[in-house]
From TrEMBL, chain A:
GO terms for cellular component: plasma membrane
Pfam families: Lip_A_acyltrans (PF03279)
Main localization, broad class: membrane
UniProt name for this protein: Lipid A biosynthesis acyltransferase
An example Gene Ontology biological process: glycolipid biosynthetic process
Keyword Transport: no
Coiled-coil annotated residue ranges, if any: none
Listed transmembrane segments: 219-239
GO MF: acyltransferase activity
Compartments (UniProt record): Cell inner membrane
Keywords: Acyltransferase, Cell inner membrane, Cell membrane, Membrane, Transferase, Transmembrane, Transmembrane helix
Automatic annotation (TrEMBL), chain B:
UniProt name for this protein: Acyl carrier protein
SUPFAM superfamilies: ACP-like
Residue ranges occupied by any Carrier domain in the UniProt entry: 5-90
Gene3D superfamilies according to UniProt: ACP-like (1.10.1200.10)
Gene source species: Salinisphaera hydrothermalis (strain C41B8)
Amino acid sequence: MAEAWTERGERSHRFMFHMIAWVAKRLGRGAARALLHLGVAYFMLAAPAARRASQDYLRRVLDRRPRWADTYRHIYTFATVFLDRMYMVGGAESPLSVTSHGVQSFRDCIDREQGALIMVSHLGSFEALRALSGRRDDLTVRILMNWATGAKMNAVLQKLDPSFADRVIDTSTSDFDRVLKVKAALDRGEMVGIMADRHHAGERTLDCDFLGGTAPFPLSPWLLAGMLGVPVFLAFGVYRGDRHYDLYCERFSPGLSWPRGERMTRAGTWAQAYADRLAEYARQAPYNWFNFYQFWHEPAADERRAGGSSE
Amino acid sequence: MNEQSDLERDVAQLLVTSLDLEDVTAAEIEPTAPLFGPEADSLGLDSIDALEIALAVNQAYGIELRADDEANSRIFATLRSLSAHIERERAAA
């Protein structure tokens, strides 16, 4: 569902995307951010499903009825973070500043060359993790993602950083390859980032409490962690406005393990614990969470009373 | 149903044990039916199961299933293909 949306969005906004990428490169981030307002205004009008999803989320996280300005700010934040991916990946001449918090928690793993899983999310920018590896040659972070859904953007990023594709474990290849590649990377002592707040079609999920509603969270990140027994970290790259990002890292578990028969319930407990941490960060930085599709099973209570739509 | 060879019977048992399969016994796994995917005769396993199988096969037979192996989808296709791969690797070792 999420992927279908991304694909649709990607097709219809191709022109906008190329224009912004061109401006970002030629005229700089300031000009590109100004231009983003055009894109966001267009998006507000042309993508009602995404707008409704934004409103549903904001209603929960702000605990009040969102105004147009809130939705605008939400989508503008998304657009900025999307744009900044280019600068994060581009590296050297990045105009951005990333302040890292809790990075010491990684140090043990790096020093022992022990592989670890990092649960990342659609909150802010997971690319902020590059602030870590950029400074250390011995730290490799690979991200599990579907190469095909972001093909346009990936092509641009690949030009900026020739090693970009190498840092991605493509989930659009076969199931076996994906999980075996994760294992191989961990065995080499690398870090592997997994999006833990969006599931793909056919994936096992658990309905978790999240921001006052019930929403399906993927179980496979936790099943994988339990099977591999490696340490698990959380990372959130929160956009704070202007040029600034805060990267928060937490050790979540020194290594999950459980009796085989209990794996589904135990994985579920971790999925819920994760949903709680994610909710905490979302409340701190409400405009930073970017899942623009119907994430919850039911719309927020206020929306329901209003007949499911406030348009 | 195709008859299981001795090795296929062992591997089927390994699948049932390592994956905790509840609605199928080792003897009931059709050697030529797909292990993964939505087909009606498929065992319906997913990517997490794939890793579990890879780890179990590694433990039981000392065979490493590698990520870059182009043949993985063929190897993991059915009980028969997986068993044949194990047989080959054991012979080569």
